[in-house]
Amino acid sequence: LAQLALKIMGVTTAAQLAEIIVSVGLAQNLAALRALATEGIQRGHMTLHARQVAIAAGAQGENITRLAQQLVAENTVRIDRAREILKEWEQNS
Prior knowledge:
The structure is a single chain. This protein is mainly alpha-helical. It folds into 2 domains: 1-37, no CATH class; 39-93, Orthogonal Bundle (Helicase, Ruva Protein, domain 3), CATH 1.10.8. The chain has helices at residues 2-9, 14-37, 39-57, 62-74, 79-92. Helix 3 packs across helix 4 and helix 3 packs across helix 5 (79-92). It is rod-shaped and about 75 Å long.
């Protein structure tokens, strides 16, 4: 399979293969940087982090998602704030 790929690309020397490998590596790095810079991945990571903070603060069941959403909405994904919110919910119930 590798030989077929080399034939399709017309690679005849190790230097040509090295240039292709470097080019592919750079393209992958640029794609990764672009993906990391987009809001979607950052927001997804923030939500995942908020869930972990909610669990660490003591949230259980449906409150994990609810608390994580509130932390993200407030843009304060911190364990101290998560504990405050949980305490407020307990006092109001």
